[in-house]
Amino acid sequence: MSSRPVQILLLLLVIGSALAVVEVKHENRGLVSELEALRSEHEQLRVEWSQLQLEEATQASHGRIEEAARGKLGMAEPQRYVIVERGAAAPRTGDGS
């Protein structure tokens, strides 16, 4: 076997491996860029989740619910009410305390 075909084969292998390195580096850069974008989105979603949890805690507080019931809906605590016990003959009345 002469050295000329071997040299051509080696040259083709070197060119092929160089092209593979370029392709892998290009793909790596794209993946790193995507990773950074996903990390940024993750941080934004984490902040939004914290804000939503805080808002939920604020909206669900008993004082706020009671204020809305009294102010917006005109509700008030009953002054007199009747307690009916299961199997009892006559209901008991209470004074609301």
From TrEMBL:
Membrane-related topology note: Single-pass type II membrane protein
Coiled coil: 21-55
Localisation: Cell inner membrane; Cell membrane
Record's keyword annotation contains Cell inner membrane: yes
Alphabetical UniProt keywords: Cell cycle, Cell division, Cell inner membrane, Cell membrane, Coiled coil, Membrane, Transmembrane, Transmembrane helix
Top-level taxon in the UniProt lineage: Bacteria
Major localization listed first in the record, in broad terms: membrane
A biological process from GO: cell division
Quaternary structure note: Part of a complex composed of FtsB, FtsL and FtsQ.
Its job: Essential cell division protein. May link together the upstream cell division proteins, which are predominantly cytoplasmic, with the downstream cell division proteins, which are predominantly periplasmic.
UniProt family annotation: Belongs to the FtsL family.
Full protein name: Cell division protein FtsL
Gene source species: Banduia mediterranea
Annotated gene: ftsL
